[in-house]
Each structure stands twice: as C-alpha cells, then as structure tokens.
UniProtKB/TrEMBL annotation:
Domain of life: Eukaryota
GO biological process, one term: protein targeting to lysosome
Naturally occurring in which organism (per UniProt): Chloebia gouldiae (Gouldian finch)
Protein's UniProt keywords contain Cytoplasm: yes
Pfam short name (any one): Pkinase
Name listed for the protein in its UniProt record: PX domain-containing protein
Length: 512
C-alpha cells in the first residue's frame, strides 16, 4: 500500500530504466550462453541447439527413426522393438532402440538409426555395399555387427547389447541405459583407471586403429563412448559413422588446428583425449593442455605431451606406429589370438580413398575459415581496446602537429622564394638605387624619355657644360640600363604622359 502511494517517475526515466534493465539482462544471458557453449557435452545437447536455432532443429527425429525402422521391419518380420533407448547417445539425428529376435526372446540387441551427414561422399550404391560389408568384419578389438543396411537417406545397424556398457560408463560409474547428459555431464565421483588398464586398453585401441589405417578404411570417431567393454578387452564401435558422413565428437577441437588435416591425425588426436580421460577420470579442460596433473606413470604424461600440448599441435600428430613404440605400450602383451579379417574389394577401396580425400579437404577448408575468423576477431579486439584507442589519439595529435609545421614551413619557403626573386630582379640593374632622383618615386612615370620629357630649368650654380656631360654619360650607358629599359615599357595615353610632379620654384630644385 505504501508503494502504491508513491508518485510514479517520469515516462522518460521509465524508458531509460527499461533500456538499462534490458541491456543488463542481455549481458547476463550472453554470459550464461558462453558458459553453456564452452561445455563440450552441453553444446551438443538437442535442447541447447533448439534454443539457439529453433528453425533448424524443429523436426522430431525419434518419430522419423520409428517410421524408418517400421518400414524396414515390414520385410524383416523376425525383429521386434522392445523399447526406445531415449537420449543414450549425444547425436541429435541418431536414435537407439532395444531389440530382440522373436525366436530368441532372451537375447537383447541394440538398433541404431542415423541420418546421413555432411561428409557423405560415397555414391548410394557404394554406401549400401560398404555398410553391408561391415557385418563380415572380424577383429578381436572391433565390436561385432549382427546386421547393417543403408538406403539413400539413412542407415541402421544392429549389435548385441552389453550390460557392462562402454569404456565411458566404466570411467564415470554409469548405467548404460541412462541418458547421455545424466551419465556424463556432472559425474558424482571423478577417478581415473589403474595403470595396467590404461596400458592394456590403450594398446588394444592403437592396434585396431593401425589395422583400419592399413586397410584404407577411414574412421575418425574415436572417443570413450565408442569403445565397448567385453571382459578385459576393448572393442571399437560405430565404424559406419565415417561411411555415413557423420561429424566427429571432437571435431570442434581438431578443426582449430591446421596441422591435424588427415583422418589418421584425427584418430591420434582423439586417442589423446581418450588417454587423458582414462588417466584423470575427466576430459581436459582446454586444448592445448599447458600442464598435466600427477599421473600414475611418467610414461603416460610423455604420450599425452606428444599429442595435446601446444608444441605437438603446431608440429603435427605422431603416427600410430610411433605411439605403439613408446614405453607405455611397447611392453604390453596381447593374449587374444583371433585373426583379423576384413576383405574390401578393389573398387570399393578406390571409392573409400576418394571419400577420405574429400573428408580431409572439407576439414582443411573449415580450418582455414576458422583461422581467418580468429585473425579478424583478434584484430577487432586489438583495435577496440582502450590502450589502442589512446595510441591512435596520440598519433592523430602528432600527425596534426606535423601537418601544421609542414604548412608553416611551406609558407615561409614561399615567402623566402618571393624575396629571392625580388633580389634577383634588382640585381639585373647595373646602377645603384641611391642615384635615382627622389622625385621619381613621387611621379607616375619612373623615367621619362628624352623626346617627350623636357628638361627642367637648372637652378644651381653648375655650368651648362657640366649638364651636357651628364647627358652624354647617360646616353652612353650599357644595354640593360634603366633608360634603355624604358623603351620596353608599355605606351601610355596622353593623361599618363603629363607631368604630375608637384610644382615648385626653381630655387627649390637642386641636383642630387
């Protein structure tokens, strides 16, 4: 009640208060969004993307996935959907379903459906053949694929369901069926793996990467959630991602560094993230890493330094063979005796090679754009800083002073040049200015010709002979004298030829 009785502020003041309030709220919202987008998992969340770009993420991908799966099951009646596994992965356009075979109800499988991505460069025919070929791949460190099929817009893959979950579930002590954000975004306990687990799992992952690189099969999707645990063995997941053209989980990291421009280099960089997470129980805060916390072994730190430090990112990634020779992995004994088998036809190998080159080319172009944007942003922030503004003001003042001094010097130079020209002009006359009669400076005609200017009567005691001698001397002057220059003056009219000297008596006239 007391507040209602208070007088309202003026309308202008209310408008200013609203603008200040809105500006303050905008700053707070921007700071909030900066924190969210800096978090790697939150920045890939569907809710965040819908908030920032609602038009591009307005489609319900779960319904689209169910439509594609139901159309597939019309021709394959032996499969049955048990339940959808909501948000167990980080991709927006990839959905998971718990499956079973009708005549084997106790066996559980996982179906993953994914739309095609921007790096899909295989033809539809090559893509369908390559996806079907994945089920024939046999390797001790690759997770078995039960069934795989692709069409012109999407693909689905069926694998056995593992109750133990992935390597990321082991690190974060999470349940496999829980949503991705709940499992990994805010872990209750952060603890790395034991040294022997780090060595064994790391060696197994490097072995399968080496195998894929030798086969010419592009991967580029290594992270801890794509490594399935089967007892004490790590097995790689999602080989189909590179065929479908899906973006990598760590693309926002390696796209900033132009030396990571091949899929082999991408796999090594992603392995560095995975090794850091196995060692410390969490991903690195920033890339590059300036300093590493205490690790179970100095050999772990040496491997991490060769991948995640600023120097390593500038010089380029080490090869998988080089990592296998490092002390951390060189003494690990692999007990699995299963022989790897993955036969790829020659024509498909050539198509995979072209697709790999196209993926690397797009990565290089993206890195170039990011580099140009960074340079522009640094230049704008540099020129917009207070220190730089002060420097520009000081330079502007110095420039204005310099221009003023130059204009003054130019004016003085012109003045001195005019004086010099006058001096040169007077220097052409061979007589002394002191012999010119004073009366000539008071007449309009400086020198009168002898024919038109009668001589004034003499008023001195000088003899006529003396006057005649003076006249003869005047007649014998050299060319260029004042008497001869008079003939070059323009002709005057009758009024100008009249003598305008003041009249005076003959007694007042005296020779100089």
């Amino acid at each position: 009640i007391s507040t209602l009785s208070l007088p309202l502020p003026p309308k202008k003041l209310i408008g200013n208060m609203e603008r200040e309030f809105i500006a303050e709220r905008q700053k707070g919202l921007q700071a909030y969004l900066d924190v969210i987008t800096a978090h790697h998992i939150l920045s890939n969340c569907e809710l965040v993307k819908k908030f920032l770009d609602p038009n591009s993420y307005s489609v319900n991908y779960t319904e689209i996935a169910l439509q594609h799966v139901s159309m597939f099951f019309r021709s394959e009646p032996k499969w049955e959907v048990v339940e959808p596994l909501k948000d167990i992965g980080w991709r927006i356009r990839k959905k998971y379903f718990l499956m079973k075979i009708k005549n084997q109800p106790k066996e559980r499988l996982v179906l993953s459906w994914a739309d095609l991505g921007p790096d899909k460069y295989l033809s539809d025919r090559d893509l369908q053949y390559a996806v079907k070929l994945l089920s024939s791949c046999s390797h001790p460190y690759i997770y078995k694929i039960t069934f795989a099929i692709a069409n012109e817009s999407s693909a689905l893959v069926i694998r056995p369901f593992s109750e133990k979950g992935t390597l990321k579930d082991l690190i974060y002590k999470a349940k496999p069926k829980d949503p991705f954000l709940k499992k990994y975004c805010n872990p209750k306990k952060i603890q790395g793996l034991e040294l022997q687990q780090i060595k064994t799992y790391g060696r197994q992952i490097l072995e399968v990467l080496k195998f894929l690189h030798e086969k010419g099969f592009p991967y580029g999707h290594l992270h801890s959630a794509n490594v399935m645990l089967d007892g004490d063995t790590c097995k790689l997941l999602d080989l189909e991602n590179s065929l479908l053209g899906l973006p990598s989980f760590y693309r926002s990291y390696f796209s900033q560094f132009r030396k990571i421009n091949t899929l082999e280099g991408v796999d090594v960089h992603c392995f560095g993230h995975l090794l850091y997470e196995m060692t410390y129980g969490r991903p690195p805060d920033t890339i590059p890493v300036e300093s590493f916390p205490p690790a179970p072994s100095v050999f772990v730190v040496s491997v991490l330094e060769s991948i995640l430090t600023c120097e390593a990112l500038k010089n380029g990634m080490p090869t998988v063979s080089r990592l296998l020779q490092m002390p951390l992995f060189s003494d690990v004994l692999l007990t699995n005796s299963e022989k790897p088998q993955f036969k790829i036809p020659t024509k498909l190998k050539e198509a995979l090679k072209i697709s790999k080159e196209c993926i690397e080319k797009r990565l290089t172009e993206e890195q170039k754009l990011i580099h140009q944007h960074r340079r522009l942003t640094r230049a704008q922030s540099h020129h917009g800083s207070e220190e730089e503004k002060k420097k520009r003001k000081i330079l502007a003042r110095k420039k204005s002073k310099r221009s003023a001094n130059e204009s003054g010097e130019e004016h003085s130079a012109k003045y001195s040049n005019s004086n010099n020209s006058v001096k040169r002009l007077w220097g052409e006359f061979p007589f002394n200015i002191s012999i010119i009669p004073h009366s000539t400076f008071h007449s309009r005609s400086i020198v009168r010709p002898p024919s038109t200017a009668p001589a004034a009567p003499a008023a001195s005691s000088s003899s006529p002979e003396h006057r005649g001698a003076r006249g003869a001397a005047r007649g014998q002057r050299k060319p260029g004298s004042l008497a001869q220059l008079h003939s070059k003056l323009p002709e005057r009219n009758s009024e100008e030829d009249t003598d305008v000297r003041p009249q005076c008596s003959q007694d007042q006239l005296r020779p100089l």
